Amino acid sequence: MSKPEPIGLGVIGTGNIAGTCLRAAKRLDGPFRVRALCGLEADRLERLAREYGVPWTTADYPALLARPDVDAVAIYSPDHLHFPMIRDALLAGKDVVVTKPMVISSEEAAEVLALERRTGRVVLVGETSRYDHRTLAAHRLFQDGDLGRLIFGETHYVHDMRTVFDQTPWRYQEPHVKDFPIGSMCHPIALITMFFGDVAEVSAFGINGGMDPRYPANREDTFLVNLRFQGGGLGRVLGAYGLVHPPLPMEALSLFGTKGSLVNNDIILDKMPGHPTATLQYRAEGGYDGHNGQVYRYMEEFARCVREGHGAPSLSPAVDAAKTVAVGEAIKQSVKAGGAPVRPRMEF
Ligand SMILES: NC(=O)c1ccc[n+]([C@@H]2O[C@H](COP(=O)([O-])OP(=O)(O)OC[C@H]3O[C@@H](n4cnc5c(N)ncnc54)[C@H](O)[C@@H]3O)[C@@H](O)[C@H]2O)c1
């Protein structure tokens, strides 16, 4: 059988994570040909285009979307620009892969879903936490029934933001200052809902740690969240962005079930005869880890979805990202209400 034509890819953004996407497209060596790159900083644009052999560059993203040789678009702009760029890309007939958060409000999310249906294109969200090799290994255990019924889950994303703020001032500058429950807690929310499904109720507390004066003092940067899931399990999510990084992995997943439990890389399976309390380390095959591996895997999945067309199943569809945004909104509402339970919107 002859190889299918490569998918013409346009990449918007030239930051580190856009570079990771370009690396993944090159390493995949087949499904994509990067035909256009867009960014506002001429030096970064030129350097990346040279490094990855991209033949055409622009600072004007509608010009990229107008190119007939661009079939699909990868979006890596600041969070608040995702929505207009997804909308314009879908209306231009392109398939879309967008970094997290998909968008910054549930109203925008509902519009993306309506547009995705209307245009019949694909939207995949590059939610890296779902494509981590440990997540995928844990998900296989869960799907195989090795963990039994999940009773409780815990995820966290803890990140000292000072050096990130140095590189990307848009994260602390008004009016589009980083909204942590939407723009950062999307990681641990998407991770826990991958196992527990839809959220019934959220109760959250938040504080501003005040460690970095660049982040507005009237906004929280640290959140403790309790979740009750529609399927019956319970969850706890920590998002902390204004503290010295503790001796913990930046992102982590713990699952506690009736047949097995896991904390990071360690698991205990009740079914192990004679060793019900032994821990063992699990690893997914392949050693390509961190953002490089995560982005590689979602770009590989995006290529399959583009080939299969609208409705192709993926680990991180737009509808899940919409629910993740809605949980982020419920966290903010609950914090405002002193921890009162809030039911997030789950119908999209
Ligand atoms: N784990 C992950 O998946 C992960 C990690 C880091 C960042 N991100 C996300 O990636 C996105 C970008 O973050 P970053 O750290 O690369 O930021 P950045 O500031 O380094 O890059 C943003 C890029 O967007 C471009 N841009 C801005 N306005 C534009 C416009 N009007 N038209 C065209 N291009 C425009 C800029 O020129 C720049 O190249 C954010 O949404 C962030 O949340 C995801």
UniProtKB/TrEMBL annotation:
One of its GO terms (molecular function) is oxidoreductase activity. SUPFAM superfamilies: Glyceraldehyde-3-phosphate dehydrogenase-like, C-terminal domain (SSF55347), NAD(P)-binding Rossmann-fold domains (SSF51735). Coiled coil: none annotated. Residues 136-262 form the GFO/IDH/MocA-like oxidoreductase domain. Residues 8-126 form the Gfo/Idh/MocA-like oxidoreductase N-terminal domain. Keywords: Oxidoreductase. This is Gfo/Idh/MocA family oxidoreductase. It comes from uncultured Chloroflexota bacterium. The lineage of its organism: Bacteria, Bacillati, Chloroflexota, environmental samples.
